[in-house]
Recover the amino acids of this structure.
């Protein structure tokens, strides 16, 4: 059984779910937008000192992700 993660362009959510055997589409999926974003923020902060450059494996364009911690108290 394979799982996938994808950004939904129309829903603007990050979905995680089980993929079909061809790995071309979700069989089941759930919205994990906030937990996925927080996991990326933790990974960038802890494993890369707060900033990381990511590029496509096929040599396409990439992204620079910078994380800045904010105080959640109001």
């Amino acid at each position: 059984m394979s799982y996938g993660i994808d950004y939904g362009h129309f829903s603007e959510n990050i979905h995680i779910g089980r993929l079909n055997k061809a790995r071309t589409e979700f069989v089941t999926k759930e919205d994990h937008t906030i937990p996925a974003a927080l996991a990326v923020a933790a990974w960038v902060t802890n494993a890369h000192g707060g900033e990381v450059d990511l590029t496509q494996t096929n040599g396409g364009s990439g992204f620079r992700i910078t994380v800045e911690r904010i105080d959640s108290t109001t």
Summary: The helical segments are 33-48. The two ends are 44 Å apart (CA to CA). The first strand starts at residue 3 and ends at 7. The chain has a mean pLDDT of 94.
